[in-house]
Amino acid sequence: MRQLVHLSDLHFGRDRPELLNPLIARVNALEPDLVAISGDLTQRARHSQFEAAREFIEQLHAPVLVVPGNHDVPLENLLSRAIWPWRRYRRWITRDLNPQFSDDEMIVLGVNTVNPSAHQSGWFTHSAVARVAKAFADPEDQRTRIIVAHHPLEHQPGDHKTTMRGANRALEELARLKTDVVLSGHLHTWRAAPFAEKAGRHAILQVHAGTGLSTRQRGEENDFNLLKISAGTIDVIRYAVTAGSADFMIAQTLRFISRPQGWVEEQTPPMAEHSP
Question: Do the Cβ atoms of 40 and 70 come closer than 8 Å?
Answer without folding.
Answer: yes
